[in-house]
Amino acid sequence: MTRDLSPSVQRDADGRLRHLITLEGLSADELTALLDLAQFYVREAGDLPARDQSLSGHTIANLFFEPSTRTRVSFELAALRLGADVVNLDMQSSSRVKGETVLDTIYTLQAMHADILVMRDAEPGLPAYVAQFVAPHVCILNAGEAHLSHPTQGLLDALTVRQAKGDFAPLRVLIAGDISHSRVARSAWQAFTTLGVAELRIAAPDDLMPGKGEFAGATRFNDIDRAIAGVDVVMALRIQRERMRGAHMPDDASYHRAFGITAERMKKAHPGAIVMHPGPMNRDVEIASEVADGPQSVIQQQVANGVAVRMAVLATIARNVQSRRTFQ
Ligand code: CP
To answer: Mutate which of 63, 65, 66, 71 to test ligand 1's pocket (most atoms within 8 Å of Cβ)?
Structure first.
């Protein structure tokens, strides 16, 4: 496979976003514009959801080669609420299991006029690889790439923090748990760093801490009780046992005692701190149920923001591609 993994692969010749593969390389202004548009699409619980026809005539294909609830459903709802046609491939019953290559699957969908392809895969580099081969009017959106990148999750996390705290500049943010296997952590680090939080902390047991070449600028902790002291945002991460090969992991109860986000530990954070989790949660492993369901939790708000953020990304990408078609 020939791969261009540089962030420039997601931009067109004029520098506009044509695909969304990573948050790396997006400026604070670009992130803020996406958050502002997402906020425009946010509605109060109980209100009817926002709708417009930004994607009328477009066809979105969801290709999830790994399991998903939140991301897949929210991309589908986002596309439907913007007036697109949507197809969801069941990858277990698709021709991939008969040996069809991912590119042949993509070309097949492209031939049927699917023009925005939403992909999740366990293979690093696949979205960027595919983006090099699709037709000029076709866009690739990364919905979760191995342990590397989950850009729309990073955006929805940033939106949730902005709604709760307003300004990023004074914030101390903690991302805690299985950092080494987490695409959520990497995209959150990119978003929060670009948006200029005061301090980003990452905390993990030694076996789950990534190498020093990653997470530039973050303060590292292997003691959760020290890491959580005084922070404004606590983001707990799922233990990703499906990505572990040979890592030494304690049993669930031992991990919870040593590293879980508990009510007792939350007392060490800033009194107004919020608690986040990307889901799916291992309750009473990386996060105590009483914290996940407690007054400081914004986990359901993250889920709600997922739809708004994906609407913003879809509308922005479609507008950028449409403007190329119009002016060429
Ligand atoms: N946060 C997240 O990506 O959840 P899903 O795996 O359910 O999509």
So the answer is: 71
